[in-house]
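Per your request, structure below.
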């Protein structure tokens, strides 16, 4: 038995059975710590480390992290954090998938960066996209961050923090070409046609268009106010003459029922089915509705709007994010250069 009188630390190393050694540490003001090892040297090294941390006042208890599994940690996160997020449904799906992974059975304290790196490589080898794997790592990383900062598990390290993230492919640069816009608008029926026009004219996301309410549309001021956006902030979107005429057309069709949503009974899933059928019948390939946001944003720049003006319309927060949606035609830029 060894005693450090200055710091009142008692470390006891004893043999437990033929092949195990137990280290026990006691210090006033700290919980008693006990751990079993295969060798005496390992027990002494562990005891010396904890003694030093206690003496220097930097010891952090790891008991909770050592008895809590990743699955249990995810369950708490799903109860306390996920319900308050805008992307609750997607996050819940990702975290439930994590609960099916073998790592979910491990204690939080035992999971290391090498484990997350192995997860990353295995998922990529299975054919999962780099974006999917990166998003899965991001959500589990936040679980560890919350546990460390808010739930008292200060001893854990975030195993995702120091591993290489999958390299994402370049952002899409698909724009409308040839007579694609004409084919879409002329062959789509109400209200698919109107949703498409608003997408091209405003750069609004599909979810923002389908959730738009009449009370948030000011036809005189030519502004639509988006109350519920992807980043959670209210946004005011200026409306072009074409967008105004489109909304007036909808209003005439709904003269007897002008309250509530602009597009009643329409959501993303329903629209996507009609969109895919429309593109198939018109022979338009590899075009997503979200590409109309690329198209609209690029047109804003081509009309001469500056970065801040475009960002205020689209809701992009950074230049890096905005660049993914702005693919200006070199010929148009050449004209501006003279």
């Amino acid at each position: 038995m060894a005693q450090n009188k200055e710091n009142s630390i008692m470390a006891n190393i004893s043999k437990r059975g033929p092949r195990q050694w137990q280290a026990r540490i006691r210090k006033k003001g700290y919980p008693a710590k006990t751990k079993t090892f295969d060798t005496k040297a390992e027990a002494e090294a562990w005891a010396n480390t904890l003694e030093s941390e206690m003496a220097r006042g930097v010891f952090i208890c790891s008991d909770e992290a050592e008895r809590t599994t990743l699955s249990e940690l995810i369950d708490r996160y799903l109860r306390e954090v996920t319900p308050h997020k805008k992307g609750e449904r997607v996050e819940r799906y990702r975290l439930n998938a994590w609960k099916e992974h073998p790592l979910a059975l491990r204690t939080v304290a035992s999971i290391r960066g090498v484990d997350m790196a192995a997860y990353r490589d295995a998922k990529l080898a299975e054919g999962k996209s780099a974006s999917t794997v990166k998003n899965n790592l991001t959500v589990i990383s936040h679980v560890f961050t919350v546990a460390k900062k808010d739930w008292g598990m200060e001893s854990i390290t975030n195993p995702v923090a120091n591993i290489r993230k999958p390299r994402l492919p370049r952002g899409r640069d698909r724009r409308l070409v040839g007579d694609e816009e004409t084919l879409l608008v002329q062959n789509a029926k109400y209200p698919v046609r109107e949703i498409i026009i608003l997408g091209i004219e405003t750069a609004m996301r599909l979810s923002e268009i389908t959730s738009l309410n009449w009370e948030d549309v000011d036809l005189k001021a030519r502004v639509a106010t988006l109350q519920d956006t992807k980043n959670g902030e209210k946004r005011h979107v200026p409306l072009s003459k074409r967008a105004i005429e489109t909304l007036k057309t909808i209003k005439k069709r709904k003269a007897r029922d002008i309250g509530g949503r602009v597009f009643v009974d329409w959501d993303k899933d329903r629209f996507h089915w009609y969109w895919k059928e429309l593109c198939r019948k018109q022979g338009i390939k590899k075009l997503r509705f979200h590409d109309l946001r690329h198209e609209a944003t690029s047109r804003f720049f081509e009309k001469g709007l500056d970065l801040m003006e475009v960002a205020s319309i689209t809701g992009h927060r950074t230049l890096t994010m905005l660049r993914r949606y702005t693919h200006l035609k070199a010929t148009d830029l050449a004209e501006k250069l003279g």
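The chain is about 50% helix and 10% strand.

Regards,
D.
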